[in-house]
Amino acid sequence: MTITRRNVLLGATATAALLPIAARAQTSEVVIGVIYPLSGASAQIGVDAQKAFETAADLINKNYDFALPLAKGEGLSGLGGAKVRLVFADHQADPQKGRAEAERLITQEKVCAIVGTYQSAVAVTVSQICERYQIPFISADNSSPSLHRRGLKFYFRAAPHDEMFSAAMFDFFDALKKKGQKIETLSLFHEDTIFGTDSSNTQLKLAASRGYKVVADIKYRANSPSLTAEVQQLKAANADVLMPSSYTTDGILLVKTMAELGYKPKNIVAQDAGFSEKALYDAVGDKLEGVISRGSFSLDLAAKRPMVGAINEMYRTKSGKDFNDYSSRQFMGLIVMADAINRAKSTDGEKIREALIATDMPGEATIMPWKRVKFDEMGQNNDADPVLLQYTGGKFVTIFPAQAAVAEAIWPMK
Amino acid sequence: MPLTAETIIQSLASGLLMGLLYGLIAVGLALIFGLMDVVNFAHGEFLMIAMYATFFLFAFFAIDPLLSAPLVAAALFVFGAVVYLLIVRFAVRAKANAGMVQIFSTFGLAIVMRGLAQFFFTPDYRSVTHSWLGGKTVSIAGVFLPVPQLVGALVAIAAFGALYFFINRTDFGRALEATREDAGAVALVGIDKNRVFALGWGLGAALVGLSGAIMAMFFYIYPDVGASFALIAYVTVALGGFGSVFGAFAGGIIVGLVEATTALILPPSLKSVGIYAVYLLVVFVRPRGLFGSM
Question: Within the 110-129 window of chain B, which residues sit less than 8 Å (CB to CB) from chain A?
């Protein structure tokens, strides 16, 4: 058989016509990397996170009747119904392991996007790797304000950061002072990685500008076997408000040690982390009646938005726990990322990035009390309003800001 | 923080209580090393298992940690002996690179134990929520002494006393001493070396079991809980002198007191600096440790 010019042309046309189908067939699944501490001191967070991400993937991949992006219909419609497949990686709370795992996810597992990481210190290295490979990264639950200020093009955060959270705390103090409460002195108690350090720096700045006196600023080593010396200093300072920025382990030990040394803080307003974990309240909840923690999620919202309750049920059947501030943000992290991939109609990093920049998700389409999800030029969502929650009668109720509050704050705490 | 008499006394008292407990945690390590020159890198995981055992006895059978302490110690005795018979016995027989084989066998055991604990017990943080002593505190002239740590310190002193008596006054203790002096020679007088080693491992593990039961009264429990205490135990043993039971006792007290007083002077995040500084000093000046004999 001789190959004529016409045959070649025909063949080429046929190939060209078939190409899109072939390309579509290849993207029958979209692989997203999820990087968390699955072993080590904060393994509990990672294991719970895994369930939150699986819940989100379930919502995306199967058909549900919720007003949440991608819930209706199966898979990502923009990619011909491609299913989301999650690849979990374990960073053990170690920034260097995080860096290596992120690289492995990108080069070996061929993920098109990464969500992470709980510890802000690990988000630093993971996001650097993503930037180098031009893979979009969403900080689902990292709250260090310095993270989005590093000029990274592929970094995004839908949730609030600690400056927004801390500002809400000081707004709350100001409001209480107007009502005639005496709040003059603060004690800061924070762990020594980027989360605690950034948090306390922000709080020091806010305290100075709003006229509060910081009588103790205690930095401690995370996962300490004993916090006796630290608590002694807090006790000596005896401030009007104690403001801890601690992960779960240290949070439990802090509360136990305070009780042992006969120190009853007048008020505790916590920078989340350990203070939104069920484990902490299971262990020492009886000593924490009236403690206030910042948060970005509250189950109170289920009364106004029934889908919050329904999705929480889905999560609870998987994990045996209710959504908390972390699992809810992890859930939303994947939804926001998948929504962008869907609109990008591609798994190309640059196209997903453009879609993320174009994100404008109304608050009602999320499970959070946020106004909306829309990223600024640094990749931060400034419309994620933080709330303050108070632990009373074994559960959290929203007490601030006024428009989200369902109860008056009990002040002082007991 | 203002350096008043009260804060200084409180620091020293807290440091002493914690130090005695550090000593009790470390003594099993010292005992095993003294007996057969093997460092048990799964020491922290022994502590973790003991804490979980206490927790489960409390959660399922409502047995108070104070009552379950002897049970846990007994269980750990069996566990320690089994670990020797099934793993360490073979590791020390290695023909080539014996040192490495020993290190990796117990190090590997540590990783396996952590993994299994996370798999079966989940990584959730557990606590013994209410016990007879938990959360209770006595206050003497403004100095607060938490009852669990106080009882822990008393148990530690009693355990060291009993251990001293046991090693110096009983036949088995003498056999233990003889085996550590010369394991080959004792075989000639009819002492079964393996039996002595197995009992030594059992005893060492039982002492960790005792500390685990006490710790469970005031510390949270999770699969990695042993790590930070094991590190302190290694320093304690090296400070007191490898292999010396009394050295572990003294080393523990020193570590506890140094940690507490460092925090009075330096920022608390640097409080372990004091411990390691003292440790380095000992290593330079007296490499075998304060009470070590080599």
Answer: 114-115, 118, 122-127, 129
